[in-house]
């Protein structure tokens, strides 16, 4: 089911305040929606709806709840069905979960959706899931379901019912299960454990029972106010609904009998305090409004504020929850992080209640992909099927999380068909199942950290609720020089998968004895690029600190819980900053000192498991099999039809064994009129290493794809060893290739990938020459490690080894040195040359002109789909350009300059430390040398001054 924000279309004009408020409302509503999008095919069954206004509460707290009941055709008095209550996210209404309600009703459940107090068309004021109000309303709705004869009962007044909800609705599901024992199963998503900890986090310290992967310290007497997120919430809830709020306070009347403008209000009777509260508090209850105003103005967690937030926290009732619980939490969530689900899981499991934990790629900061959303919807439905109906497989009490990647959050990170890792249980819920932690050493001296006055300028980590926008703008964090201390690990020799909250111990000194700091763990790439996984930071509200930098206070720190891979060659950087724009910051300037505790290391949690494709993608296997079968039949028919024509057209060139590759008049045009390759002709002889050069868009890759039989030329003929190179041609078995990406399976070792590739050829394993290819690629023992732990250079070498399997007579490589370091490039150069020395032929397409110059014997230069030059490297470099003339005796320099300047068509002569440089123009080198020797000038050397790069740029420019 959907548990993350998704795209929305907002109606009000851009820039208007109302438009901003509606945007925030839509954002938060979608962030808390249980499931979105089009209902599944099962929901196509006949589902009827009944809308009703249900009274709840009494006296001044009485309200009317706007409800919709979704009834499946299968539910009746003779065959009653279990029920599901669907709660919406903050800022939403019953309409937010309408698609999910129809989906569940289509699966046979009686579904009741409603708008919570203060939202949609329901009356009343927002109490933030207050047990006295919103939770009591759930009990009213349970009573309503118990009165229906089409709802399955466990006993008189006790319906068989589950509750699902996201964010605001998720907390309501937990609280309701704690207060009303009639609830039989719950599926809360992206929600909180303690609203106090979520909005006033303080991650100084380590949870005593830190045996679970994302255990995060719970806030004590203080915390760092999550200012931006809290402002978003309050901004949505403070918008009045309808005209009656101020109208009733001002006493405005209706139309007068004479058609005038109505009765003017008596301003002398207006209570200014009531008007102020109506304008500033909107739909919030007075105590909630007062708590926010106190926090927003002071940034402090007072006992009064804590009382309001604790009252709405599931943490207070976890010991009462007996309903089997599916906890779904997002890894891209700066509002309610993974630590909130961790605390809920530990608290509920302590009762012996069955708990399953699912982390997914998404959350309040980033939408989940359609495939992930569909998978979550199925997991929630499966949970209810088993625990409400007693049907379907037992989902168990396991744990799953997205397979870690080295990508940052945002656009392009959360992808359809993403893999997940399944573990038998959530670590730490059982005493004998602690989480495994790896120690990563950090280095760095003690450093001063400046807190600017007023907290400005402040570092930027992410935009709350708009992580996708942050990524679209470059995904770059902003750290202010002087405001942070940084500590780095060594370059990683093995990939590290972080699954949970790392811990570390710092040494901090502050003149005032207190400090507000923000700790974060960066991924630093080999090129120095920085990635802050999920844009998450750990606020630290530190007190009782030493004022003496020479005797600092040790502070244990729990970093944000993340799911991220730190690749080989990357480093981990612990950064401790004094500011972050998302939080309330101290007003006073200060200079604190931050260092690492002696002998400390970063303790990184890792959770092993089995990598699986998402269920959403796996369920398509039947359709894919059908499509594959149809494609196979079509291919067989095409082959039968083409075989006769192939017999007539098959022509073998007599010099095929001496000319492994020949292009003759090859053109490739597409239906839109674009011509990628035009009239291309060249040939490659046995034993040559040919470099295919050209700028982007020159047609190099298209030419290689035609050579490999992946696409057909529009005109012309391509021959491999004298045979036409068409799709499926047997002669292509003599060709090994690496073009456009490695295509390796990350969960297998390098050796397994090579074995699988060769097995797919159907040829005997002995013909693979596996060990020779592995030795050539220089992988060593790394060949038996999983590919997911490889650096880009290692993946490149495995792909090249794959191309060399079977020692093909023609080897085609597209950008083979991408990701290789200089020693590896040098080794690759020797490999290709020695490979050609055996009588085989190598084609290399590359942008690294210096490597082509040092590796290849021959060159074909392309531009705009055409060949513009061909020949040996020496011929290409020597066509025109300058020469360097070294003299045996410097005293002959003046006479040499005079001779060279007198040659017809020669350019000006330049004196350099290396010798004389002159563009000979039409004059040959031999003629220039003869002219110098004739006048008695002794020449030590005469070499081309121009490199391949110069020739390439000259040729491409001319084209």
TrEMBL record:
Which residue ranges traverse the bilayer?
620-638
Q: What InterPro entries does this protein map onto?
A: AAA+_ATPase (IPR003593), AB_hydrolase_fold (IPR029058), ABC_transporter-like_ATP-bd (IPR003439), ABC_transporter-like_CS (IPR017871), Galactose-bd-like_sf (IPR008979), P-loop_NTPase (IPR027417), Xaa-Pro-like_dom (IPR000383), Xaa-Pro_dipept_C (IPR013736)
Q: Which domain of life is it from?
A: Bacteria
Q: Give the keywords, sorted.
A: ATP-binding, Hydrolase, Membrane, Nucleotide-binding, Transmembrane, Transmembrane helix, Transport
Cite the SMART domains for this sequence. Answer: AAA, PepX_C
Keyword ATP-binding attached? yes
Q: Which SUPFAM superfamilies match?
A: alpha/beta-Hydrolases, Galactose-binding domain-like, P-loop containing nucleoside triphosphate hydrolases
Q: What would you give as a GO molecular function for this chain, any one?
A: dipeptidyl-peptidase activity
Where would I find the ABC transporter domain in this sequence?
661-889
Q: Which family does it belong to?
A: Belongs to the ABC transporter superfamily.
> What is the protein named?
ABC-type multidrug transport system, ATPase component
Classification from the root reads: Bacteria, Bacillati, Actinomycetota, Actinomycetes, Geodermatophilales
């Amino acid at each position: 089911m959907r548990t993350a924000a998704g795209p929305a279309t907002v109606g009000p004009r851009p820039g208007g305040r109302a438009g901003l408020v509606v945007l925030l409302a839509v954002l938060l509503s979608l962030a808390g929606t249980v499931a979105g999008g089009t209902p599944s095919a099962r929901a196509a069954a006949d589902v009827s709806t009944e809308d009703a206004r249900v009274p709840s509460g009494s006296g001044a707290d009485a309200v009317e709840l706007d409800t919709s009941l979704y009834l499946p055709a299968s539910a009746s008095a003779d065959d009653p069905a279990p029920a599901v209550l669907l709660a919406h996210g903050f800022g939403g209404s019953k309409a937010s979960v309408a698609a999910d309600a129809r989906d569940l009703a289509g699966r046979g459940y009686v579904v009741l959706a409603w708008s919570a107090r203060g939202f949609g068309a329901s009356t009343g004021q927002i109490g933030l899931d207050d047990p006295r109000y919103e939770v009591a309303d759930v009990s009213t709705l349970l009573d309503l379901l118990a009165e229906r004869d089409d709802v399955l009962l466990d006993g008189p007044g006790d319906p068989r019912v589950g509750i699902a909800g996201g964010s605001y609705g998720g907390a309501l599901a937990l609280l309701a299960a704690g207060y009303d024992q009639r609830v039989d199963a719950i599926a809360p998503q992206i929600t909180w454990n303690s609203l106090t900890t979520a909005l006033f986090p303080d991650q100084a310290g380590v949870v005593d029972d830190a045996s679970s992967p994302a255990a995060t310290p719970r806030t004590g007497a203080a915390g760092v106010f999550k200012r931006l997120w809290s402002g978003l919430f309050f901004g949505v809830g403070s918008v009045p609904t309808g005209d009656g709020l101020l109208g009733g306070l001002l006493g405005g009347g209706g139309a007068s009998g004479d058609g005038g403008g109505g009765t003017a209000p008596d301003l002398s009777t207006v209570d200014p305090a009531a008007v102020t509260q109506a304008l500033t508090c909107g739909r919030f209850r007075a105590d909630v409004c007062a708590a926010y105003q106190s926090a927003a103005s002071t940034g402090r967690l007072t006992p009064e504020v804590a009382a309001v937030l604790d009252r709405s926290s599931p943490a207070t009732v976890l010991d009462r929850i007996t309903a089997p619980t599916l906890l779904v939490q997002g890894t891209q969530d700066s509002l309610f992080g993974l630590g909130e689900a961790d605390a809920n899981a530990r608290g509920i499991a302590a009762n012996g209640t069955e708990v399953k934990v699912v982390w997914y790629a998404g959350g309040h900061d980033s939408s989940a992909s359609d495939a992930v959303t569909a998978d979550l919807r199925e997991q929630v439905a499966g949970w209810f099927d088993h625990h409400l109906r007693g049907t379907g497989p037992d989902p168990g009490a396991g744990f799953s999380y997205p397979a870690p990647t080295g990508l940052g959050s945002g656009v392009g990170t959360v992808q359809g068909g993403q893999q997940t890792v399944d573990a038998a249980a959530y670590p730490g819920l059982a005493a004998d199942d602690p989480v495994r932690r790896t120690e990563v050493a950090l280095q760095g001296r003690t450093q001063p950290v400046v807190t600017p006055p007023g907290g400005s300028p402040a570092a930027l980590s992410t935009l709350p609720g708009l992580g996708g926008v942050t990524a679209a703008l470059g995904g770059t964090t902003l750290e202010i020089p002087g405001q942070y201390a940084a500590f780095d690990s060594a370059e990683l020799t093995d990939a590290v998968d972080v699954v949970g909250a790392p811990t570390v111990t710092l040494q901090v000194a502050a003149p005032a004895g207190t400090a507000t700091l923000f700790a974060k763990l960066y991924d630093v790439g080999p090129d120095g690029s920085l990635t802050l996984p999920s844009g998450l930071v750990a606020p630290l509200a530190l007190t009782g600190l030493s004022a003496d930098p020479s005797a600092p206070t040790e502070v244990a720190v729990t970093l944000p819980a993340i799911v991220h891979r730190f690749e080989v060659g990357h480093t981990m950087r612990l950064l401790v900053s004094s500011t972050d724009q998302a939080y309330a910051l101290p007003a006073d300037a200060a200079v604190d000192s931050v260092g690492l505790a002696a002998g400390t290391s970063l303790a990184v949690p890792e959770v092993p498991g089995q990598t699986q494709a998402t269920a959403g993608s796996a369920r398509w296997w039947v359709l894919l099999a059908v499509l594959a079968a149809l494609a196979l039949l079509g291919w067989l028919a095409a082959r039968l039809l083409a075989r006769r024509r192939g017999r007539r057209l098959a022509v073998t060139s007599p010099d095929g064994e001496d000319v492994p590759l020949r292009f003759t008049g090859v053109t490739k045009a597409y239906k839109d009129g674009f011509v990628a390759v035009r009239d291309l002709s060249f040939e490659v002889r046995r034993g040559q290493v040919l470099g295919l050069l050209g700028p982007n868009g020159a047609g190099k890759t298209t030419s290689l794809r035609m050579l490999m039989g992946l696409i057909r030329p529009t005109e012309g003929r391509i021959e491999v060893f004298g045979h036409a190179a068409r799709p499926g041609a047997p002669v292509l078995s003599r060709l090994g290739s690496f073009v456009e990406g490695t295509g390796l399976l990350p969960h297998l070792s390098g050796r397994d990938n090579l074995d699988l590739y060769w097995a797919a050829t159907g040829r005997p394993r002995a013909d693979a020459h596996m060990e020779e290819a592995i030795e050539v690629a220089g992988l060593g023992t790394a060949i038996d490690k999983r590919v997911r732990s490889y650096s880009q250079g290692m993946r490149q070498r495995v792909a090249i080894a794959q191309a060399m399997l079977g020692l093909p007579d023609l080897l085609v490589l597209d950008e083979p040195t991408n990701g290789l370091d200089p020693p590896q490039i040098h080794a690759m150069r020797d490999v290709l040359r020695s490979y050609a020395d055996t009588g085989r032929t190598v084609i290399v397409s590359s942008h690294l002109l210096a490597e082509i110059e040092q590796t290849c014997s021959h060159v074909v230069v392309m531009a705009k789909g055409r060949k513009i030059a061909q020949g040996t490297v020496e011929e290409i470099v020597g066509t025109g350009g300058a020469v360097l003339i070294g003299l045996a005796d410097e005293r002959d320099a003046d006479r040499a300059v005079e001779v060279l300047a007198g040659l017809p068509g020669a350019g000006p002569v330049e004196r350099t430390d290396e010798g004389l440089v002159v563009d000979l123009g039409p004059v040959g080198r031999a003629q220039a040398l003869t002219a110098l020797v004739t006048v008695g000038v002794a020449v030590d050397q005469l070499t081309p001054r121009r490199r391949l790069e110069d020739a390439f740029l000259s040729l491409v420019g001319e084209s």
